Amino acid sequence: MKKKLYRTVGNIKRLDREKVTGIDLYRCFLEKAYHIGADLKGANLSDTNLSRVSLIGADLRRANFSRANLNDANLSGANLTKADLREADLKGANLMGVSLRGAVLTGAVLSWAVLTGADLKGADLIKADLEGVENLTIEQLSRVETLYKAKLDIKLLIEVKKKYPHLLEKPKPEKK
Cβ contacts of residue 37 below 8 Å, gap of 6+? Predict the structure, then answer.
């Protein structure tokens, strides 16, 4: 299994050098993979095991991580702008300084993740589990698109209800 992982990571690095984007890694097993500064723009990583992966400073814009396992992953400094993280498991992930602008985190589990300095502007956090998230501030939450049915620590929930109650309301359907 380890040999296959190294081969897969090696292939990703080669594709990176050739500036190939949007690769399909659906259901791959990439646990503990290490690739600093990876360019995985638009990649399909749905249902992929990325537990304890290190993608520090990676370009993951518009990547699909739906239902991916990102337990204890290190994504610090990564760009996840407009990424699809629906139902992703990000328990204990290092998301320091990450851009999650416009990302969809519907049903994602972020318990015990570190969000120091993360940019959440426009992020969709419907039904997201944010209990126990480290260094999550009311200022960060004030910039999200929605927190409808999200699980929050009681202290943050009280602040949101007081200052930004509209974030807890059911979002209005988009007009086409």
Answer: 56, 57, 58, 59
